[in-house]
Design goal:
alpha/beta; Alkaline Phosphatase, subunit A; disordered N terminus; about 450 residues; two-stranded antiparallel sheet; 8-stranded mixed beta sheet
Length: about 450
């Protein structure tokens, strides 16, 4: 049976289930020489920066001064102001969740994002993170906001995928506290938002349904008969892979149903905060992340953005196991001297979610024996270097994956003032684009290229 890398099972109600590459379903020629897996790109955005002394090497013993930190715009740490490349050895407390992935990641420090004076720092953090346009060059915008990296890359690599890009947001609140510039990192162009999806059920239906199927509870039940029929045509290795994948989809459904049931129960209780504030935060982020990984694995898209939370959104969240009541990340960041320990916990919590997704990608085998992580440029980053000082230089950036295309296991400290757009240019070229510059870039980051 000849098939493309992306195969679908179909059930009643317009339901489809995309499948990963299975050798048994490939043509004889493909089995002998399987097509090279597509290279993907995914960005994991963390709002409000990080606590520097927990994230950056050499800053663990820094004492944060008391009083108003609003004017402290430069690094307080001990970062090398010159270029240096060294092995990534002992991980800092915030990076500890990446211990099992150390050989697959790079820590890149010293990079700055474009900042346009006279406008809101937080709005620029999110909206301009993947844009990095030169300041005061964009007409009709208060921010240096242009077409973002993911959309530009998708122009080249999304010609055969059902979805050009997918935009995920883990902001479950509906209070619209801030404008769209605080809650989105993907833009078709200046003033033209690529809207993110916040609800897991909405994303699930977008990925797996051609028609409205709200009267059905889950997709795996709808395609189960076709799935059992197909399994008879698979070899043992593919049967195992198929069962593993099928169970992962079932686990997504189970988790989604559980969270929806919990939300319904919470809605009957009189809380000071919205119901969403009491939902388990980690479960929600990982559920959205599982959907993103599935979309990348099955070729539904090759480009995704994942915003783990909004900028400057004072509506609180319940961070699983960290605090006994919902807390506002933004409010904590402006009281860092008193809440340093709590903020460090939030930073580690976000890194745990990034590590979970990277490890899941690493566990998924592709057609040529490589892993999904090998074939994905997966980047952790923020538009602020420190949430309390609002510094937009020396950003916290980690790259994961890339396989043989990239060197890994390194701490690469760039010269002071290196534009973040240099990394975006490097990634764009790795994704196959023939461009010599991106936004305010001054060149590629050759230190990470294999």
């Amino acid at each position: 049976m000849s098939t493309s890398r992306r195969q679908f099972l179909r059930g009643i109600g317009g339901t489809t289930l995309a499948l990963p590459w299975l050798e048994s379903l490939a043509s004889a020629g493909d089995r002998q020489q399987p097509n090279a897996p597509a290279i993907r790109m995914a960005h994991f955005y963390v709002p409000i920066g990080v606590v520097r002394r927990g994230f950056f090497p050499g800053e663990a013993n820094d004492v944060i001064p008391k009083g108003n930190l609003g004017n402290v715009m430069k690094s307080l740490g001990k970062q090398d102001p010159n270029q240096s490349v060294r092995p990534l050895e002992d991980l800092t407390p915030t990076m500890k969740p990446l211990e099992n992935l150390k050989q697959h990641i790079n820590l890149i420090t010293g990079m700055d994002r474009t900042f346009q004076q006279g406008t809101d720092v937080h709005a620029q953090c999110a909206s301009c993170y993947l844009s990095s346009a030169k300041a005061f060059t964009i007409e009709g915008s208060a921010w240096p906001l242009d077409r973002t990296l993911d959309q530009i890359v998708a122009d080249e690599v999304a010609k055969t995928t059902p979805f050009r890009t997918l935009e995920f947001s883990c902001n479950s609140h509906r209070d619209n506290k801030e404008s769209i510039y605080f809650d989105n990192i993907s833009w078709y162009g200046t003033g033209h938002l690529a809207p993110s999806i916040r609800d897991p059920r909405t994303m699930y239906r977008r990925l797996f349904s051609n028609q409205e199927i709200s009267r059905y509870r889950d997709i795996t039940s709808l395609v189960l008969e076709d799935a059992r029929s197909m399994q008879r045509d698979l070899g043992k290795a593919d049967r195992d892979k198929f069962s593993e994948y099928f169970e992962s989809i079932r686990a997504i459904e189970t988790q989604m149903n559980r969270l929806e049931g919990m939300k319904a129960e919470l809605s009957t209780v009189d809380f000071e905060e919205p119901t969403e504030a009491y939902m388990p935060r980690g479960d929600y982020i990982r559920l959205m992340g599982d959907l993103m990984v599935t979309a990348l694995q099955t070729g539904l898209t090759n480009v995704a953005t994942f915003m783990v939370g909004p900028e400057r959104w004072d509506t609180p969240y319940m961070f699983d196991g960290l605090f006994d009541k919902p807390r506002s990340h933004h409010q904590m960041s402006h009281n860092q001297t008193k809440m340093i320990d709590d903020l460090l916990k939030v930073d580690e919590f976000h890194m745990q979610q990034f590590a979970y997704l990277a490890e899941k990608m690493q566990s998924i085998e592709e057609s040529d024996g490589s892993t999904l992580l090998d074939n994905t440029l997966f980047t952790y980053g923020s538009g602020l270097g420190d949430g309390s000082t609002h510094q937009y230089n020396d950003l916290p950036i980690i790259t994961a994956g890339g396989g043989s295309r990239l060197k890994s296991g390194l701490h690469i400290n760039m010269p002071e003032g290196t534009p973040l757009a240099n990394l975006w240019l490097t990634q764009a070229k790795l994704m196959g684009l023939s461009i010599d510059e991106f936004a305010d870039s001054t060149g590629q980051i050759h230190e990470i290229l294999a």
